[in-house]
Amino acid sequence: MIFEMTYQVRVSDFTEGLRWYKGLLNKDPDLTPHEGFAEWELIPGCWLQVSEGTASEGSGPLRFGVLSIEDEKSRIKNELDVESFEIFSREEVPVKWATFIDPWGNQIGLFEYINKHEENKRIQTILGNRLEV
């Protein structure tokens, strides 16, 4: 039985990586158990770890579900100086998605449900009444 998950990205400059991921996630880490390592609990039981080290080439992408992919794209480009990236969709796929690269070469992505009723059902299932918009 799987009941939790973590995903780790590595950054060569931990101080800059911590700053960058704090900006991406709009919050401070939930845990910093030792030097060169930080963790965010993104939703209950789902953790992102940022660790000092060499990025794994070709890994990812780690994709985050967002309410508005266009708004997040704009914020990320402006606040984190990420190069422009394309948003994709296909008729048979229920989400729009995009992938960009962090300053260390890790692939990060976003996705947004096209059907907002389905999106609301997913949010309710996952977060209950804890959504802070």
What do you see in this structure?
The chain has 3 helices and 8 strands. The chain is an alpha/beta fold and 133 residues long. The protein has 2 domains: 1-52, 2,3-Dihydroxybiphenyl 1,2-Dioxygenase, domain 1 (Roll), CATH 3.10.180; 60-133, 2,3-Dihydroxybiphenyl 1,2-Dioxygenase, domain 1. The longest helix has 12 residues, at 14-25.
Give a quick rundown of the structure.
The chain has 133 residues and is α/β, with parallel strands linked by helices. It is built from three helices and eight strands. The model has no long low-confidence stretch (mean pLDDT 93).
Determine the strand fraction and express it as a percent band. 25-35%
The average pLDDT score comes to 93
CATH topology of the largest domain: 2,3-Dihydroxybiphenyl 1,2-Dioxygenase, domain 1
Spatial order of the strands in the main sheet? 1-4-3-2
Helix content, binned percent:
25-40%
Number of H- or I-type helical stretches: 3
CATH top level of the largest domain? Alpha Beta
Q: Give the N-terminus to C-terminus distance in angstroms.
A: 32 Å
CATH architecture of the largest domain: Roll
- SSE run: EHEEEEHEEEH
Number of strands: 8
Q: Give the biggest sheet.
A: 4 strands, mixed
CATH superfamily of the largest domain: 2,3-Dihydroxybiphenyl 1,2-Dioxygenase, domain 1
In the predicted model, the low-confidence regions spanning at least 5 consecutive residues are none
The rounded Rg comes to 15 Å
The assigned structural class equals alpha/beta
Structural domain count: 2
